[in-house]
Structures are given as C-alpha cells and as structure tokens.
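Let us work through a complete example step by step.
Step 1: write down the sequence.
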Amino acid sequence: MIQELSLERGELHMAHKSTARLKGYLLDCLFYTIISMIWYGSLLFRCMPGMTYAESKAMLWCMIGISILVCTFILDWRAWTGWTVVKALSVLYGVYTVIVYSKTVGSWPTIVLGIAPVLSMVYIILLMSQKIKNSKSKGKIIKHRLRCCCVGSQSIATVALTFSQCYLKTEN
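Step 2: predict the structure and record it as tokens.
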C-alpha cells in the first residue's frame, strides 16, 4: 500500500492508494469468481430444492452478479480492493449454501446465523452512539458511520456464513 502524508489546515492526513480502478476491480471480480466457482462446485455445490442442476447453476450465477453489483456500487463505492471481492463472494456462497443445506443439517448453522444479526446490531449501536465532536461536519460523519455500519455488518455476516460453511463441510 502506497501512503502519502499531506498537511491540510494544520492537521496531518494520510491518503491511501490501495484501491483499484473500476476496470481492474471488475477483472479481479471475474478472475476470483471463476476460481471460486471451480472451488465451490467441486466441494459444496448442490442443487437448490425443487430445481435442476442447470437451474441451480443459473441461480448461483445470478446471485453472484447481484452480489458483486451491490458490493461494487452500493456498499464499497470507490473502495475497491481484493477484500471487497472476497466479501461479496463469501456472503453469496454462504447464503446459497445455507439455503441448499438448510433441511439436512442440525441447528449449529442456525445458531451462528442467529448470533450474527445480534452482533451487527451491537456494532451499529456502539458506532452510532459515539458523540460527534465536530458539529461542522456532522453530516459527513453520519454518512461515513452509516457506510461503516453496512460494511461492518457485511463483514460479520461473512464470518458467520464462513463458520456455517465450515460446519457443513465437516458434516457432509
């Protein structure tokens, strides 16, 4: 990560250049999607209940597209890194896996996925309840905190779904 220091109005600010341009980010998305589909297809893929193999694959590809679009243009706007791709794909594969395996597993994934929203709410409450010291940029600070709430909740969901997938892999 290349970092630059700049002095503005007597304050020290650090600008990072760790984010990619849109074209490079989308190429990374394509590469990691293909790699992850090979991995997921060989380890965990099952047809969705009531669907054929082709329909399930098409559904998974649609879910991948929606997940990447949401993460690219809504949640992580202009913060395109490899971590953004990992989050987008992890949440997607986790949701798909939980849907597919929901009838064949015990209660452990349900417990883990039940704890995730509680942790997200605690995180949001703690973040939003902090006092804003600079009243001049209150709107910017609230906007930044709301974005952090979305990204933090997405990260918590990623971890919870990863734990659920690990459980599913050891059970099947």
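Step 3: interpret the result. The helical segments are 22-43, 53-75, 82-101, 108-128, 138-171.
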